[in-house]
Amino acid sequence: MRAIRVAEYGGPEVLVPVEVPDPVPGEGEVVVRAEAVDTINVETQIRRGHWGEAFGITPPYVPGGAAAGTVVSVGPSVDPSWIGRRVVAGAGTKGAYAELVRTGVDRLVPVPEGLGSREAAALAHDGVTGIGITEGIAIKPGERVLILGAAGGMGTLLVQLAHAVGAQVVGAARGPQKLALVRRLGADAVVDYTEDDWTQQVRNVFGGLPVDVLLDGVGGELGTRAFELVADGGRVSAHGAPSGGFAELDQESAGRRGIALRGIADVQFETPEIVRLATKALAEAAAGRLHPVIAQEFPLSRAADAHRAIEARSVPGKALLIP
């Protein structure tokens, strides 16, 4: 089968198509023929060598942690009725940048009728994390919510989820195309965080009142500046780092002001919880209440181009690989 291999850390060019033996499912495993493969920013960080050790990944390796497709074979003790079913292989699946993906049966999430494999793959990571964030931070109707990175794969979902609750949503992104998308998805207002006065724009939208909930999918200096807008007793989820690092938040100030801080560790779920959240995300999408934004699709052999697009932050929504 065709797969993508990283022989050494480096730029997108280290993502090389190779031919490898077809995987054979072991005890408690299945093999899924991938129809769409998810891509996320953290995979670009691992590929560059920044976070490989933290995730237990060293070259050579096949990237990717989730794909949607059809089960084509099962291992010992696995119910053969799985064969032919459309599923998402997620929750710790490794080596998903491939035509055939081996994963544990406990990590399978059936794809509901009426939902395409592309949409299912687009929700495999971001749907889980997005719903996990909104459940954990418990957004309430009428609350003032600021979402940084609102045009990204997960940001677009967070905008929809916060809007559905009845919150007042300001989406922060960059460029007119992304801002227009965020507004279409339900944001009450949008701001371009490349403008010097963007934090004042947020204050103006909320009539001078502080932010109740900050959902920071960007990190870095932008996340630090956004933290200054949060009300005493507010809640913050600092889960994003496409800027190169998570926001450096003042823990002492947060404690003094009664601000509840949540970070990336709070959305590292065990497999049963990931399956629950993924099942919920897919059901919401199948019902037409949640719409993943798929901006670009690349053939599997062009995984390097997908990573370039992610790193350039030129893709509003998701980029998928299509085997």
Q: How would you sum up the major sheet?
A: 7 strands, mixed
- What low-confidence regions span 5 or more consecutive residues with pLDDT below 50? none
Rounded to an integer, what's the Rg over CA atoms? 20 Å
Record field, number of beta strands: 15
| Shape verdict | globular
Structural class: alpha/beta
Q: Helical element count?
A: 10
**Terminal CA distance:** 10 Å
The average pLDDT value, as a whole number, equals 94
β content, as a range?
25-35%
Helix content range: 25-40%
Could you state the order of secondary-structure elements as H and E? EEEHEEEEHHEHEHEHEHEHEHEHE
Furnish the topology, listing elements before pairings:
Blueprint: E1 2-6, E2 15-19, E3 29-38, H1 41-48, E4 67-74, E5 86-89, E6 100-104, E7 108-110, H2 117-123, H3 126-137, E8 144-148, H4 153-165, E9 168-173, H5 176-184, E10 189-192, H6 198-205, E11 211-216, H7 220-227, E12 230-238, H8 251-257, E13 260-263, H9 271-286, E14 294-299, H10 303-311, E15 318-322
Parallel strand pairs: 8-9, 8-11, 9-10, 11-12, 12-13, 14-15
Antiparallel strand pairs: 1-2, 3-4, 3-6, 3-15, 4-5, 5-7
Helix pairs in contact: 3-4, 3-9
Relevant terms:
6-stranded parallel beta sheet; 323 residues; alpha/beta; 26% strand; 7-stranded mixed beta sheet; 30% helix
Notes on the structure:
This protein has 323 residues and is an alpha/beta fold. The chain has ten helices and 15 strands. The chain has helices at residues 41-48, 117-123, 126-137, 153-165, 176-184, 198-205, 220-227, 251-257, 271-286, 303-311; strands at residues 2-6, 15-19, 29-38, 67-74, 86-89, 100-104, 108-110, 144-148, 168-173, 189-192, 211-216, 230-238, 260-263, 294-299, 318-322. Strands 3, 4, 5, 6, 7, 14 and 15 form a seven-stranded mixed sheet that branches. α7 links the parallel β11 (211-216) and β12. α3 (126-137) runs parallel beside α4 (153-165).
